[in-house]
Amino acid sequence: MVGKKPNNVEANNTNNLPQPEPLSRRVVRGGIWVFALRITNRGLGFIRTIILARLLAPHDFGVLGIAMLAIATLETFSQTGFHAALIQKKENVESYLDTAWIVSVIRGIVLFLILFFSAPVIAKFFNCPQATLIIKVIAVSTLLSGFRNIGILFFQKELEFNKQFLYELSATLVDLTVAVTLAFILRNVWALVWGGLAANFVRLFMSYMLHSYRPRIRFEKEKFQELFGFGRWVLGSSILVFLITQGDDIFVGKMLGVTALGLYQMAYLISNLPATEITHVISQVTFPAYSKLQDDLPKLRDAYLKVLQLTAFISIPLAGGIFILAPEFTQIFLGNKWMPMVPAIQVLVLAGLIRSIAATTGPIFHGVGKPRIDTVWQVIRLIVLIALIFPFTVRWNILGASAAVLFSILASSLGFSFRVIRITKCGIKNFGKMIILPLLNAMVMVSIILIAKGSIQPIGFWEFFLLVGVGLISYFLITSLFDRFLNYGIQKLIKQDLAFR
After folding, report:
1. How many C-beta atoms surround the C-beta of residue 13 within 10 A?
2. Neighbouring C-beta atoms of residue 279, cutoff 10 Å
3. pLDDT digit string, tens, across residues 353-390
């Protein structure tokens, strides 16, 4: 009897200890924080874009686009993939952090030097001498990025997205304040330049304010080689994604000029809003979650189908609304000088919709340690893009470039979908159900908005938001019918699985 007492006490003490929070709840909480961050950032970014588009010309955005393309090119081709490798690892990764930080610092310094001294060559390639000084100034951003605290990767690894929220929001607020203020004063591209640079200074500062880890100057060859073993596939995929997502910008800027590049990039920004936001949220939240579930196929499959269902439910109506209201949005909020990009928006929004669905697959491939799949299908996408972009752009200008992007995304997305069905064993029927029902719903919504547009003329600021409201109400009413009669289940997902309990 005496010998059993300590065990009982130990058991009671164990029961009284705080129990670890379930992974599903941490994922939900993390997802809510990330959605809140993206909604806030996009809201502020929307205000920034409208103000700057009114004050500046497409040519200004095109000049900045050239500088950003130069930076994106070098950053992509020097990507280490260490960040993803550290998140994917199940064991403690602190012993790897100093090596990863040293590589980041060296990379930042090298990129800065290359950009600074190659700026005249890049500007000459695009026949835009004005871009030379801008590239040199913006190159400082790569230097700042290299010195950021490596400890911030734990925001994503440990699903601490409340800290990620503060980290990103602080930079967004600074960018908005500086860029808009200087746009009123300068009325040129330098407002965009100084806004972006100020945001990167804030990111560097906040990375050390929000995480206690302090990197040291220490490099271990074995740790480097181990991280690079995973990171090389991330590097390969990143290079391919860059060529696919930025190659069309380079082609348009070189072939059609700086103004056309400004129009094309703005069209891509607006049309790919669903894909960009959904992709960002999905990758940040689900990649670390899938990494923890990689050895439990039933839970992995269930988690993936829920993510796919929620993604389709949100992104499909957003894409439909952008497609049907693109002319009115551009006219009302951006002005007549941006109207030539409307057809490109409508084609690119279809590409963005497909990309948002395909975005659910990447975190699965990386989470289960198979990044090679992502790389292979990105190669196929690149081949299709290369084959189509020249003849399409020559014939239809930025509309043709948009069509080439659409067909390339469609080709790779089919491959991504079949591979994720095989890995999760979810079945084509279950996979298709999550997409077809919201697609039918959105088609009805678009038809209703189109009918309403015909009866509301002219369409001004308030009429535009009335049409948005009509679309939202019709979409949610039809969703209720699908839930009741077709067992769609989205209301259950939102009420039960996405609620704090």
Report:
1. 9
2. 21
3. 998 888 888 888 877 878 788 878 888 998 999 999 99
DSSP state of 488: -
**CB-count exposure of residue 487 (10 Å: 0-12, 13-18, 19+):** exposed
Location of structure tokens 């005496």:
2
Long-range Cβ contacts of 1-7 (<8 Å, 24+ apart): none
Contact 409, 355 (CB under 8 A): yes
8 A C-beta contact, residue 367 and residue 290: yes
In the chain, the amino acid numbered 331 is Q
Dist CA 441 CA 437 (whole Å): 6
For residue 280, give every residue at least 6 positions away whose Cβ sits within 8 Å of its Cβ, in sequence order, or none. 34, 38
Q: CB under 8 Å, gap of 24 or more: what pairs does 481-485 form?
A: 482/437, 482/441
**What percentage of the chain's residues is helix, strand, coil (to nearest 5)?**
85, 0, 15
Calpha distance 338→266 (Å, rounded):
9
User: What b/e sequence results for 246-261 when a residue is b if at least 16 CB atoms lie within 10 Å of its CB, and e otherwise?
Assistant: bbbbbbbbeebbbbbb
CB 490 within 8 A of CB 313: yes
pTM recorded for the entire structure: 0.72
Specify whether the CB–CB gap between 386 and 332 falls below 8 A: no
Report how far residue 334's alpha carbon sits from residue 345's, in angstroms, rounded to the nearest whole number. 13
C-alpha to C-alpha distance for 163 and 155, rounded to whole angstroms? 6
Question: CA-CA distance, 496 to 224, in Å (whole number)?
Answer: 43
Is 19 within 8 Å of 218 (Cβ atoms)? no
With beta carbons less than 8 A apart as the criterion, state whether 339 and 330 touch: yes
Distance, in Å, from the CA atom of 385 to the CA atom of 286, rounded to the nearest integer, reads 28
If pLDDT is split at 50, 70 and 90, which confidence band does 2 have? very low
CA distance 133 to 110: 18
Percent of the chain at pLDDT exceeding 70: 81
Rg, the chain, Cα only = 24
**Minimum mean pLDDT among 5-19, 316-330, 471-485: which range?**
5-19
Residues comprising the chain, all counted? 501
